[in-house]
Design a protein that fits this description.
The complex is a heterodimer of chains A (241) and B (866). Chain A has 241 residues and is of the alpha+beta class. Chain A is built from nine helices and eleven strands. The longest helix of chain A has 14 residues, at 98-111. Chain B has 866 residues and is an alpha/beta fold. Chain B is built from 27 helices and 30 strands. The chains are: A alpha+beta (241), B alpha/beta (866).
Chain lengths: 241, 866
């Protein structure tokens, strides 16, 4: 069984939004909500200023907080399939009342530090990144990985040492976003975050982004809601050979 | 189908293609072959659903003008997804954000889907639906009135993004009119006029993927410019796979500058001077490629070295603000790191004397011998197609508006002075056509276009082929709506990588509503104009339909004929197919799995008819009269311009001693910019793009803002010599302290997405509503800076001085509201007069060129040929 995962090689990212757009069209996501986000960070003092581009997606964690939250607050519609993809089984929500669905959805939303879960405004149902499971089934990579101009998003079977993401992880230092992972349980790994984060206090718990930054346009472009005070503490990933 | 997981894994990750068993590497199965992929919610492990497509159709993108190859996925008659064409050597299967969102052009709920005729005063927004026959008949009748007088030049075509591949010029030639005016002078005309006399073609092909050192001057290639998508892909490869260093000179921290290893902010218009100083350093240090200069240039290395000594790094620091030590260091790094490349699209050319800036920067790859090298600064590789026979001849009489005599070198025209010339009566216009451009929004002095287009005496009758109601369409008399780029036929090519290609546009779906593609509209008009055949026009419009015309375009092209001609293009979208997309690396590979290799050194190819002999053999050379790189441009000298690259300090910014005239804290230069999500006007109702960027605040430096008491998000007034706008401030470290920058991509007052009108009244012109409208969550906060930007003209290349406008910035005055715009067109007129003073016929010309010794200058002559 493959264990699907994605490496984000942020050294290659140019913040072009090809990923956010292709995800929207592939999955017919309505306006106002996103399954993947692109964050911009500007740091430095004139004239030594840099801009970093930080793509974020559901990490498809090994121990997903959203799965636990949906189990404890509803019928456990959130689940992890045996290929490592965290999905929502809408069949389970059939027959539930609107309030019951809302409670389960809110619990899942609040449980996720990446804000990967949202309510689809057209259906009222919870929604999140599925690693384009419908594409995986046919041997296609997720839409975002297919369209990425810089080849930032490298998708494949993390349990296969010869897959492109595994090869990248073997050669490059990487980090995961989920603070409690011991380095083997996340579905998404980041290469190149050091230059973005280390100088800029994010490693030590500094604010990644102020919610006001998004509203005021301080960050020139972003998609998705501001991370509500969440600090992306990252953890060094030790790749298991 | 027999796709097993194990085979998929062995061959590597499927980047949008499925590897099928037993298939040769040259025939990768594609998602579209399988009719698979697409949207759908994951329901359960075995219940994961996806879409099986009805058809997958290759096309060429036109959200901007990079012309990427795409494939469109259709289900139930609706386009659901756009992806890059994996067979395209430039695009390599990936579309940028704009390209992926292009579906929004087709299903824009405010799109115009049937012909309209205005029923109120111009600009009142009152329209009635008319039939095609009524619209075409009225247009033909107006044309015939003009033709009866024997004055075909009174018929004007003002076009922007014309990618019909010959239909628009055929239309105008058929009518016998030479009054065709493009938009190139507000794009990169001075870059072209800087490059063309120097080495032939009007653009370079930088080999970023293989470069070790990249310098960009005012070139935001990671977001825009020619050719954003293919070149940005290759910059990522160069930077990460090839360890290239990237350095950016830019007044603002664009994404390109932000991603660069070093960003050097500099004062607007001084890029050329910095390059001249760098070239000087390179030659002083003896780091130039003397052999290349002496073999290939029409100016010797020793003469050039002497000439450049006047451009010291200290002089460059004085004007640009870039420290002399950095100029020296970067020059030496550039010259000693091979291969190296520069890129300029398109900041440096949009200034007074922008042509000189371009030629100055070209010196860098020339003197270091990086021309046509792998990883260097290469010639563009394009392809062409035939025009169907018979071909109409061009009109007899030259047109002042199209070939302005005061700008003889500006062969790409000076479109932004046209409304002033019309006001001055330089040429009478009776029928005005507008195609793929919104000049009353996107041009400098846009308010003057508004004034002229509203004036029924100056423009008695106007017609547009636009399918968007916008600031310009709103001023027309008749709308004959063309179709989106996904519903039409066009031949295509663009030198957007090192591999030349031919492509097409073809209807992915039938045109929506009652809209018709423009080449068929032209044909209808001509057939109505020449209904009885007495004018002999119909012979030039004898094609059956768009596809028939394309077959005629592509007949007789060597190689393509053998591959299957137009049918090959219909099926694959592009020809030739150089290799297959390797899903693991994103590169195009040949049958043995190695990346396809471009040809280099085109100028060195032996050619018995070559004009340049190098190393004992005649060589193909460059596209100039003598086959050499013309560092010395004799054509410039004829009109009293400097034949060598030179720096001219802008009199708006500098006094004669070189002191800045921008003395007050609030005095700065207004610049505009594009970002990766929008184009100058067409994308403002593409919903997916608009929710990413729907505001265009004015970027202002933190220290400058502090001095003016301006905080983030504050309302500010930006006052130019012709008026003011009220915008919101974005205080940032990422901009030069004497520059304020507003993106020129927002501010249209038309369209429910552009105006964030959730509850606006339903689409008025036939379009189907979009349920997503109720999900609009943003506020429309766009302001168009173009009304307060006066015209200015590079007298050589004709470029608008987009990035020269001096403004005063202050906190907004009480009573000011966001978006307030005040402008005085009489003041715009004064700037037009000043622009004429800088022309070679004007009173400023000689005093701006004391170093050029010329006798009598040629008389301005109205002749065809611009």
């Amino acid at each position: 069984m493959p264990r699907w995962g994605m490496v984000m090689d942020t050294r290659r990212c140019i913040g072009c939004h090809s990923c956010t757009v292709s995800c929207k069209t592939e999955n017919e996501v309505p306006l106002g909500v996103w399954r993947t986000h692109m964050r911009y960070y500007e740091k430095g003092v004139y004239p030594k200023v840099k801009r970093h581009f930080f793509p974020v997606i559901c990490d498809h964690c090994e121990e997903p907080p959203c799965v636990e939250a949906s189990e404890n607050n509803g019928v456990g519609s959130f689940y992890k399939n045996d290929e490592g993809v965290t999905l929502i089984d809408y069949e389970k929500l059939k027959g539930r009342t609107k309030e019951q669905i809302q409670v389960e959805t809110q619990a899942a939303i609040e449980s996720c530090p990446l804000e990967a879960v949202f309510v689809n405004p057209n259906t009222g149902l919870p929604e999140k990144c599925t690693f384009c499971a419908h594409r995986l089934k046919e041997g296609l990579v997720p839409a975002c990985a297919q369209s990425c101009l810089g080849r930032v998003r490298v998708f494949g079977d993390l349990s296969d040492p010869d897959s492109p993401p595994s090869k990248l992880l073997a050669k490059n230092a990487s980090r995961t976003l989920m603070p409690d992972d011991d380095g083997g349980g996340s579905g998404v790994y980041y290469i190149g975050l050091e230059s973005m984060l280390i100088d800029y206090e994010m490693m030590e718990g500094g604010k990644a982004t102020d919610p006001q930054d998004f509203e005021s346009g301080k960050i020139s472009q972003s998609t998705g809601p501001a991370f509500m005070g969440w600090t992306p503490k990252t953890k060094v990933h030790r790749h298991k050979k | 189908m027999g796709i097993s997981r194990r085979n998929f894994m062995k061959l590597g990750m499927a980047a949008g293609v499925t590897i099928a068993l037993n298939e040769k590497l040259a025939l990768f199965a594609r998602a579209e072959d399988l009719g698979l992929g697409g949207g759908g919610a994951a329901v359960g492990e075995d219940k994961v659903t996806g879409t099986k497509w009805d058809k997958v159709v290759p096309y060429t993108c036109l959200v901007c003008n990079i012309e990427d190859g795409g494939i469109a996925f259709v289900k139930d008659g609706r386009i659901r997804k756009l992806e890059g064409n994996p067979k395209h050597p430039s695009t390599r299967g990936r579309l940028c954000g704009k390209g992926g969102a292009g579906i929004g052009h087709v299903y824009d709920p405010d799109r115009i889907l049937y012909p309209l005729k205005r029923v109120g005063p111009r600009g009142s927004g009152k329209w009635k639906r008319i039939s095609w026959d009524e619209g075409v008949s009225e247009v033909a009748a107006k044309i015939n009135e003009v033709l009866k007088k024997g004055q075909p030049n009174e018929i004007m075509m003002k076009y922007g993004r014309d990618r019909t591949g010959g239909a628009t010029s055929r239309f105008m030639n058929t009518l016998g009119s030479n009054t065709s005016v493009n938009h190139t002078s507000v794009c990169e005309s001075s870059k072209k006029i800087g490059m063309e006399p120097t080495w032939g073609p009007d653009i370079e092909s930088p080999d970023f993927a293989n470069s070790k050192y990249i310098i960009t001057f005012g070139a935001n290639i990671l977001e825009a410019a020619y050719f954003h998508n293919p070149l940005a892909q290759r910059i990522a490869e160069g930077l990460v796979d090839n360890n290239a260093k990237m350095v950016s000179f830019d007044v603002r921290l664009s994404n390109t500058a932000g991603r660069s290893d070093e960003w050097f902010p500099l004062f607007p218009g001084t890029d050329g001077l910095v390059a001249l100083a760098m070239a000087n350093v390179i030659m002083q240090e003896g780091l130039e490629d003397t052999e290349f200069i002496n073999d290939w240039c029409n100016y010797s290395a020793s003469d050039l070295k002497k000439y450049l000594t006047q451009y010291t790094p200290e002089m460059a620091e004085k004007y640009s603000g870039v420290p002399a030590s950095d100029i020296r260091r970067i020059a030496i790094e550039f010259a000693t790191t091979k291969p190296a490349v520069v890129f300029t699209y398109r900041g440096p050319c949009k200034h007074l004397y922008g042509s000189y800036n371009e030629r100055s920067i070209m010196l860098l790859p020339i003197i270091t011998g990086n021309i046509e090298k792998k990883g260097g600064y290469c010639l563009p590789r394009g392809m062409g197609w035939n025009q169907p026979e018979p071909k109409p001849q061009a009109g007899h009489e030259p047109s002042f508006l199209s070939s302005p005599p005061d700008f003889p070198l500006a062969r790409h025209k000076v479109s932004h002075l046209v409304p002033f010339w019309i006001k001055d009566g330089k040429q009478k216009i009776s029928v005005y056509f507008n195609y793929m451009g919104s000049e009353a929004f996107t041009f400098p002095a846009s308010s003057v276009w508004g004034e002229v287009l509203s004036d029924e005496k100056l423009i008695p009758f106007s017609v547009t082929f636009s399918n968007q109601m916008n600031e310009t369409t709103n001023l027309m008399d008749i709308v004959l709506p063309g179709v989106s780029y996904l519903e039409r036929h066009d031949p295509e090519s663009m030198p957007n990588s090192l591999f030349p290609w031919l492509g097409i546009r073809q209807p992915v779906i039938k045109p929506l509503g009652d809209s018709i593609e423009v080449r068929e509209i032209y044909k209808m008009i001509i057939h109505k104009v020449d209904a009885d055949g007495s004018k002999g026009m119909k012979q030039y419009w004898n094609f059956k339909d768009g596809e028939d015309m394309l077959r005629q375009h592509f007949k007789g092209i060597k190689g393509l004929d053998e591959a299957g001609g137009y049918d090959f293009l219909k099926e694959n979208g592009v020809w030739p197919i150089y290799g297959t997309l390797d899903p693991a690396t994103g590169r195009m590979v040949d049958k043995s799995g190695l990346e396809i290799v471009a040809e280099y050194g085109l100028h060195m190819k032996p050619d018995p008819n070559g004009k340049v002999t190098v190393k004992g053999e005649k060589r193909a050379g460059f596209g100039t009269a003598d086959g050499k790189i013309n560092i010395y441009a004799k054509g410039y000298e004829e009109y009293g311009f400097n034949p060598l690259p030179v720096f001219k300090a802008h009199p708006w910014h500098w006094d004669e001693k070189g002191n800045s005239k921008l003395k007050g804290d609030g005095d700065m230069v207004l610049t505009t910019f594009k970002w990766n999500i929008h184009t100058q006007s067409r994308t403002q109702n593409v919903k997916i793009l608009l929710e990413i960027v729907n505001k265009n605040p004015a970027w202002i430096n933190t220290v400058t803002a502090g001095k003016l008491g301006i905080g983030e998000g504050d309302l500010i007034r930006i006052t130019s010599p012709v008026g003011y706008v009220v915008a919101k401030a974005h205080v940032t470290e990422g901009i030069h302290p004497k520059v304020i920058a507003i993106s020129n991509t927002m501010g249209s007052k038309f369209g429910r997405y552009a105006t964030a009108s959730k509850d606006g009244k339903p689409g008025e012109w036939g379009s189907i509503d979009d349920p997503d409208l109720k999900n609009i969550w943003w506020k429309a906060e766009g302001v168009n800076p173009n009304p307060i930007i006066p015209v200015s003209v590079d007298p050589i290349g004709g470029s608008q001085g987009w990035y020269d406008t001096v403004v005063t910035v202050s906190k907004a005055k009480s009573g000011d509201k966001f978006g307030d715009t005040q402008v005085d067109n009489a003041k715009h007129y004064a700037f037009y007069k000043e622009a004429m003073d800088y022309a070679y016929t004007g009173k400023n010309h000689r005093k701006m060129h004391p170093e050029v010794k010329v006798g009598k200058l040629p008389e301005p002559t109205l002749k065809k040929g611009h």
